[in-house]
Amino acid sequence: MKAARIDWRYRLAIASRAVAAVGGGYALAAGFTAALSLALVPFMPRVEAVLTATMLAWVVYVMAAGWAFYARTAWGAWGGTLLPALVLGACAMAPQWMKAAA
What we know:
- This protein is mainly alpha-helical.
- 84% of the residues lie in helices and 0% in strands.
- The chain contains three helices and no strands.
- It is elongated, with a radius of gyration of 18 Å.
- The relative contact order is 0.18.
């Protein structure tokens, strides 16, 4: 039986997906935590809002890591993790920007 030879591009794509899963997933979970904790503050004490958002961020992190390997291409893995992270980060920073603009 002939051994399959793995191309360097395949290895690079897998490494890129792994970095997208770890780094992009972390960025997405951090943005989710910040945005959700700000959204929950009117309904519960601040400490409980942050703890709730942090616990739910683990689910988001696992889903982002899964998405990084489920996506059709490595570009899709990066886009699926970083674009929502940027949107959630902007939502979390919006109160600061509004305060500075006023």
